[in-house]
Amino acid sequence: MPGEMPAENTPTGAHAASLDKGPAHRGAPQRLAQAALRDVPWEVGVAKPDPAIVVENVTRTFGGLTAVSVDRLEIQRGGITGLIGPNGAGKTTLFNLLTGFDQPNTGTWSFDGRPLGKLAPHQVARLGVVRTFQLTKALSRLTVLENMLLGAQGQRGESFLRALVPGTWRSQEKANTEKALELLRRFKLDAKKDEFAGTLSGGQRKLLEMARALMSDPQVVMLDEPMAGVNPALTQSLLGHVKDLREEGMTVIFVEHDMDVVRDISDWVVVMAAGRVIAEGPPESISQNQAVVDAYLGAHHDAPLTVEEEDQVLAEAERRIAHEEHGEVIDSDTTTRGEGR
Ligand SMILES: Nc1ncnc2c1ncn2[C@@H]1O[C@H](COP(=O)(O)OP(=O)(O)O)[C@@H](O)[C@H]1O
Ligand SMILES: [Mg+2]
Description:
Helix 5 runs parallel beside helix 8 (202-213). This protein has helices at residues 14-21, 28-37, 91-98, 121-126, 144-151, 159-164, 170-186, 202-213, 232-247, 259-265, 283-286, 290-296, 307-325; strands spanning 51-62, 65-76, 80-84, 106-111, 114-115, 129-131, 220-224, 251-255, 268-273, 276-281. It is 38% helix and 18% strand. It has a six-stranded mixed beta sheet, sandwiched between helices. It has a four-stranded antiparallel beta sheet with strand order 2-1-4-5, covered by helices on one side. Strand 9 and strand 10 (276-281) form a beta hairpin. It is of the alpha/beta class. The longest helix is centred in the C-terminal third of the chain and has 19 residues, at 307-325. It folds into two domains: 13-138 and 200-297, P-loop containing nucleotide triphosphate hydrolases (Rossmann fold), CATH 3.40.50.300; 307-340. It is globular, with a radius of gyration of 19 Å. It contains 13 helices and ten strands. The structure holds adenosine-5'-diphosphate and magnesium ion. The site of magnesium ion has 5 residues, from helix 3. Magnesium ion binds at residues 91-92, 134, 224, 334. Residues 1-29, 320-341 are annotated as: Disordered. It comes from Geodermatophilus dictyosporus.
């Protein structure tokens, strides 16, 4: 199976065993991912031993602004890749491109050797690549469970209606509901299943977003600032959930600003600035890198959102989702925060 750790790297079924025994026995996939990357040079665009995602010559401009210009980027299978860079570096735009939420000016990218260009988000999701949003897309007037059922068909507005109309795909409905309830238990949201998503805290919405992404059984999960705006009491649990994805053999790309978190969680770190990848390497290589230090100097760092900003951002996200329901293309989930648009 493409999303599993490669068999030759899996000593005596360690991966399967770690799943059976649960989080107390975490660690084998992490060690395997780090071992696989140990001899990879710390160079931009460097080949990985077993890439799940390969990006080539992808550019995206908005007017005169080059938001993304990535010559080559390979993402190692089964590891957690931390994607960092100052605000406006192009991280969210890159996620949008790789998952079909936006189209590039040039370039190609593939998952397991299969080109993903020109596919819609739900098609990309069905092939096993999903993302979550920096601004969560939970629909506040749907219940937590209903939000989960939207994830079952991949990330597409239309499926939303099908998910709510009984009988249109009854055979799948029961299985999907069971899967949703199981994921809600895992993310400790089961007690909230019948509540409107709008009543959840910011952190719970992030958990719901992650749980929903898992409804389509992805092999690659891209998490856009899953910790942003999350109450510190929930950050450890969120981090644990991200590490669990790796334990289950998924490939994770993770945008995060807090360098302690990045160091703790990443097997490999990719640094973007002004649309380009300016450095990549294991976490310990990054703070010594002069290009990285320069990129961050004078860059404006993200501060946590205020409650008013969070409300504004959610209202904007819902407006965009409403548009999506009507089949319009959404350029980006980045809004507000004065990113110069
Ligand atoms: N839909 C859009 N229209 C115009 N400019 C955009 C759009 N989306 C992103 N940008 C610009 O592209 C650049 C990269 O943004 P983004 O990918 O959101 O960066 P990051 O996620 O690293 O903070 C920024 O300058 C941003 O203002
Ligand atoms: Mg972003």
